[in-house]
Design goal:
This protein is α+β, with helices and mostly antiparallel strands and about 100 residues long. It has a single domain, classed as Alpha-Beta Plaits, CATH 3.30.70. The protein is about 40% helix and about 20% strand. A hairpin with a 4-residue loop joins strand 2 and strand 3.
Length: about 100
């Protein structure tokens, strides 16, 4: 009897867990144009500024293309906050179309 209760509880927990994770928000990835990058050290500042934004998961800033590719949780932040972060760091940006 005790084994059946434990097994039933584990099955219920597994079903609830899979249901929870299936409704999780997908991360979003955008690319920002940042024409103000003037040296090879600019991407470091841009990465640091963007990583401070709550909800940012990953940042790749590239001097050659003068862009930053940002992966973030859209439940926690949005593109305007990313643009504000780069602008406040001295690198105004726009969403690459």
């Amino acid at each position: 009897m005790f084994k059946k209760i434990i097994l039933s509880s584990l099955i219920t927990l597994a079903l609830l867990s899979s249901s929870f994770f299936s409704h999780a928000t997908e991360n979003k990835t955008v690319t920002l144009d940042i024409p103000g990058m003037t040296c090879k050290f600019c991407p470091i500042t841009i990465r640091k500024a963007l990583k401070k934004v709550d909800g940012v998961i990953d940042v790749k800033a590239d001097y050659d293309s003068k862009t930053a590719t940002v992966t973030f949780n859209p439940d926690k932040t949005h593109v305007d906050a990313l643009i504000k972060a780069t602008t406040n760091a001295g690198y105004p940006s726009t969403l690459k179309q």
